Amino acid sequence: MEERLLILHNDEINTFDHVIHSLQEVCLHDKVQAEQCAILTHLKGYCEIKRGVLTELEELQEQLTTKALNVTID
């Protein structure tokens, strides 16, 4: 199966704390990893937050979307 990327996009709505907590809860990132993703997303406009097969990433995308995060699969 082809490996895909789950990408978090910057928005002007969510706080750093909300993004960090969501990444820890849904993607099982540790605190440092979640903080780095949040900062990169803020600075670059996006960050690759997870690699995996499409079905796995679709589930994570759905969970993050319910937390009002803007995520896509590439």
Protein described:
This protein has 74 residues and is of the alpha+beta class. The chain has a single domain, classed as Ribosomal protein L7/L12, C-terminal domain/Adaptor protein ClpS (Ribosomal Protein L30, Chain: A). Helices cover 53% and strands 23% of the residues. It contains 3 helices and 3 strands, in the order βααβαβ. A 3-stranded antiparallel beta sheet has the order 2-1-3. α1 packs across α2. It is globular. The protein starts with a strand and ends with a strand.
CATH topology call: Ribosomal Protein L30, Chain: A
State the total count of DSSP E strands. Answer: 3
| Second rung of CATH, namely the architecture | 2-Layer Sandwich
Distance between the termini: 14 Å
Unreliable parts: none
Give the mean pLDDT. Answer: 97
Shape: globular
Fourth CATH level, the homologous superfamily: Ribosomal protein L7/L12, C-terminal domain/Adaptor protein ClpS
Which structural class fits the helix and strand makeup? alpha+beta
SSE string, helix = H, strand = E? EHHEHE
